[in-house]
Inverse folding.
């Protein structure tokens, strides 16, 4: 049973380009969460999604960031017109249908975005 | 705003010693707490959790203590091994239920270094 799969592991973008980060949840998991981690800091919640539905996006920046979890395929975190401050590790977690951190919340290995 | 923070950013111990990592939280509504271990280049790995109706929980070589009176959480690692070297984060799920269910708030992290 594969864990939470994130790709790419490393992504380099020039300022102004778009970054697309992908997350495939564990088999049987229908809830996905995205977190951002700046160097030497803890993870900061960005968004919580279920299939075709955004549940909580209170941690998402108002501009340039968007997330989706379509009926088919992985969840996508999209960052438009990247700036150097977007450089960070982005982690995805998934959980089973009961949802929530109390039930099998599992993290992927992350995507490390570098904006040059 | 509400936050979860750590008292000690770094901890160095000798192999075989016991380690104690501390965490303070400020959200009095928190009812569930988790300790994660994060190794370099990897995602957070679940270690142990505790609910607010408990004050102690033990796992294999690890014990979590919760003091709700002073909003303090600690992780004790017995007979620390070099493989325990990592960054340790506490996290809380202060809004279990509703649209925020599953959203975690992380502390800053403590770097544990175990010397052979």
């Amino acid at each position: 049973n594969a864990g939470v799969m994130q790709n790419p592991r490393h992504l380099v973008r020039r300022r102004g380009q778009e970054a697309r980060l992908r997350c495939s949840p564990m088999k049987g998991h229908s809830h996905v969460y995205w977190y951002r981690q700046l160097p030497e800091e803890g993870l900061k919640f960005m968004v919580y999604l279920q299939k075709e539905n955004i549940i909580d996006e209170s941690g998402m920046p108002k501009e340039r960031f968007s997330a989706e979890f379509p009926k088919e395929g992985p969840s996508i975190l999209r960052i438009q017109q990247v700036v150097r401050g977007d450089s960070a590790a982005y982690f995805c977690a998934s959980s089973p249908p009961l949802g929530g951190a109390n039930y099998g919340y599992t993290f992927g290995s992350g995507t490390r975005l570098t904006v040059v | 705003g509400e936050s979860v923070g750590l008292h000690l950013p770094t901890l160095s111990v000798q192999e075989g010693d016991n380690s104690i990592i501390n965490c303070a939280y400020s959200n009095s509504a928190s009812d569930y707490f988790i300790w994660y271990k994060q190794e370099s280049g990897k995602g957070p790995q679940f270690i142990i959790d505790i609910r607010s109706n408990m004050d102690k929980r033990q796992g294999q070589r690890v014990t979590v203590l919760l003091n709700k009176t002073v909003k303090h959480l600690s992780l004790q690692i017995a007979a620390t091994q070099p493989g325990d070297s990592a960054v340790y984060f506490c996290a809380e799920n202060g809004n279990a239920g509703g649209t925020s269910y599953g959203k975690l708030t992380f502390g800053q992290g403590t770097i544990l270094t175990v010397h052979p």
Chain A touches chain B through 28 residues (CB under 8 Å). Chain A has a mean pLDDT of 92. The radius of gyration of chain A is 13 Å.
